[in-house]
Amino acid sequence: xxxxxxxxVFVLLVGFLYGDAERFRLGHGESRKLVVEGRGxxxxxxxxxxxxxxxxxxxxxxxxxxxxxxxxxxxxxSGVVVDLSRIPLHREPLRDGxxxxxxxxxxxDFVAFNASGGTRCYDLNGFxxxxxxxxxxxxxxxxxxxxxxxxxxxxxxxxxxNCHPRLSMVCEAYYGxxxxxxxxxxxxxxxxxxxxxxxPELGWDGLISARTCIGEFQxxxxxxxxIGNSDVELKPAVDGEGSFEVLxxxxxxREVKExxxxxxxxxxxxxxxxxxxxxxxxxxxxxxxxxxxxxSCSLWLICRVKSDAKAGxxxxxxxxxxxxxxxxxxxxxxxxxxxxxxxxxxxxxSLPGKDDDWRARQVRxxxxxxxxxxxxxxxxxxxxVGEDGEPDLGRFSEALSWCEREGFNRKVLIYGLLNPLxxxxxxVSGSKDCSSEAWRRVARKxxxxxxxxxxxxxxxxxxxxxxxxxxxxxxxxxxESFVTALREFPGVRIGSNASPSGYFRFHSxxxxxxxxxxxxxxxxxxxxxxxxxKDWEAADVDWMKKHIRYAYGQVRANDGLGARRRFxxxxxxxxxxGYWGFSYHWGKSTMNVAWPYPESDGTxxxxxxxxxxxxxxxxxxxxxxxxxxxxxxxxxxxxPAELNQMTAxxxxxxxxxxxxxxxxxxxxx
Length: 669
Fold this sequence. Notes:
The chain is of the alpha+beta class. Helices cover 24% and strands 26% of the residues. Strands 1, 2, 3, 4, 5, 8, 9, 10 and 11 form a nine-stranded mixed β-sheet that branches. Strands 12-14-20-17-18 form a five-stranded antiparallel β-sheet, covered by helices on one side. A hairpin with a 2-residue loop joins strand 4 (56-66) and strand 5 (69-70). The protein starts with a helix and ends in a 7-residue tail after the last helix. The model is unreliable at 1-19, 115-131 and 259-269 (pLDDT under 50).
């Protein structure tokens, strides 16, 4: 039935441990023949088996022949491997010219070749490094292990030989075919990066598939690679949308230079081997996409099921050229997703704003991606303080009315940063000292008035005076005096984003705290010290588990996997009640942030991380739906440490197992 088929598609995406593969071990001197007749491609993944969890560089020990002749060149890498442990970096060809043998990495079951779950010492984008894996977590992209060959379909057999004199060799083989001459494709889980050098997964069954609910969005990513002999031109379009609203987008990149790349760009370091590319917008496709030979592109179908659709299976086509298309099958599920009750916050640095039209489109986009809470700050929502210390709350009241209309901030409203407001209080009071009676007299009028206005409108407001107080040591004296002063004002509450150690130190004075590095502290299970204030007492693990309910982090355009993890299952695993994304759009043409921004035609833009963030929120909503509708369900989430290491495909596989239980189908293992 369809559900089993769809589940298999996503399980195939999980990686080399699953799917239609041949797995075998070769002792030293042993060989194995693979029947490849009628196959278009064969991929082999091999490693020398080291005992005791060790890892080594490896060497040229793999013999490969095709019908008794040397194998053709690989089609999935540059043909070299790079030893990143040496200085300077050491490069070797994949195939040794004298012996004709191919390079094989040496490691054990406890490193990246086949590690999974709690046994993974580091994940697939760890030390393997930019030159070999490119951090994109795409299958058959790692020249340490993976070699893919394009075959003449008249070829009959491939032979693998272990030429190492002592060690055994662990091997896997995968097969694939072109969707048309020279074009490969595979569906890629949301959160997995695709770069021009990424290689599609072998074993994909040629069907683009997804499952979603009425009224919900579902992003679908498809990788297309040109392995032909010349450049091609794609003209993507979606045929037969029917019961769906569909946006078709392509991944755009920006090349950055080392000397012009600030740290916050979060680019992928390619060790000088390949261009330093930062994924940016998912762009609308105007006419056609040129796809150079030996390059890949990422196409996105962002689908929403119309409200009048019925549960069932629907077919569309993703047309690539006039005569080449890929079938798309979407199953609309027979249940509704519930609201998991979590706060999903955002610091946009641009709302409410003054452009009514842009504000309306941006707010719609925010809500469609699951954001329900915004920071308000004294820059975008100013409060003017009169000479008598009385505040003019007209603009603030308008902002509350806007939040009421849009449904934002119904659980918590944080007002900060407050620098413009604090400067006015200093000017009117004639004092910068929060402990002085003059400063407190004016500040009391201002903060109590704002507090009472919010209370009367049903908002619980927290004043956030200092950004990351224990990360910016020079701010700490003001933070302490500010908090001490406001604690004396009737009803006024304090909000902060101190680290776990700072929150531990000041928790009796802070009413609402969003911890910056809470995930690492909670997952690692070790007491958290403060880097800047080393004499502070460490926050112990039990205290953190009991008190840390909210966290925040930067969300970059290239980090879809991080966004999907942190906004999704990881919050459930940690028992968190909310997560805020902190990132800024300064209005520049080159972007590295995930949040929506205006395109040149005035429409709301998007990035792969912005779509992955929504997928993460929906991951959690599927889990909340299971707990509500099937309280006796047997599915148990992995530990937070395991969730934090899961790939995008593994996260998708977990969602599919939840769906399987919701619709009473047999779970695909």
